[in-house]
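Chapter review: from sequence to fold.
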Amino acid sequence: MFSPFSLWSVRLFWRRLRLRKKAPPLAIAFLITVSANTSYAAGKAIAKLYVSNSEGDDITVIDLATDTVIGDIRVGAKVHGLCAPSDGRRLFTTIESENNLKVVDTRTDKIVDTIALTGRPNQCASTPDGRYVGVPIRNENSVDIVDTAERKVVKVLPVLQPHNCYNAGNDDAIFVSSMGDHEINLIDLKKMAYAKKIPVGGIPRPYAVSKDGKRLYAALSDFHGFVIASIPDQKIVARVELPPAPPAACRLEPHTPTHGIELSPDGKELWVTSLGDSGVYVYDVATNHFSTEIPVGKCPNWITFSPDGRYGAVSNSGSDDSSIIDTSTRQEVARVKVGKSPKRLLAVTVP
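The token string follows.
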């Protein structure tokens, strides 16, 4: 077993080695393996970034301590959504080509279960306890509610052109967006029925919800920015434009100047992508001010944060890589090559 000191030494040596232009491939492979395995051997949690490669059949696994690829999970063609419970022990992924939800053990990164869905799935959301997973079903105009304990769909609700599900840290509720009705709907999981329908004034793309369940931030088609809605009042309260950018020329995100939006874990910042100029803006929700743009890769698609808030990550669908950003300095610290056309990504702390 490796001691904490040896773990620190390996990572320090790795960071120094990374700075060299020509590091020996065998040494790099050895250090990647030792660094990942040592964390488990020492009984320490490891922060992993999972990136779904939408035009491939795999999920790339990145160690956020070393900013290196440590694995690749073959899950099936047209992998789409990623979501996970708060304990980080499982990863759920939706596979469009197979109409199913797959369950991955995050310690081994092996598929341990497959659950049939009612149609072609999009972005999923898990409750913190992992009991329920919401999955939009695009070709059926519906949303599946999966009971992971029973390993089956237990409720199907109608929704016109569903796209993304989202959970705001509540075991009793999940959101689903309706591109057809220009709204985002709140599902009460106790009643298995809609509790609220919040209009967003356009076709909703990615969105985020505050932990108190009161504020909703939604990107819209053909709008370089986002709207803010009051969930209790079920109405739009603000429309926020990003600084001007050239027209986006991103093949996978037509009519979508903004395709990534997420709240920081402390809820104080909203991070928003700009596809046209390949960057990320940070919006202070208290002062309503934007940061200077953070440059990232081409066609920044999705945003996630490590649970501790130290790192933000962006999938760049136009350059087949993922940007890792230090949230304290707001600087990109690494750009890691992944698979073909990365879209959804999720950071998980694996115990």
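Two observations follow directly from the output. Confidence is low (pLDDT under 50) at residues 1-23, 25-30. The domain at 203-346 is CATH 2.130.10.10 (Methylamine Dehydrogenase; Chain H).
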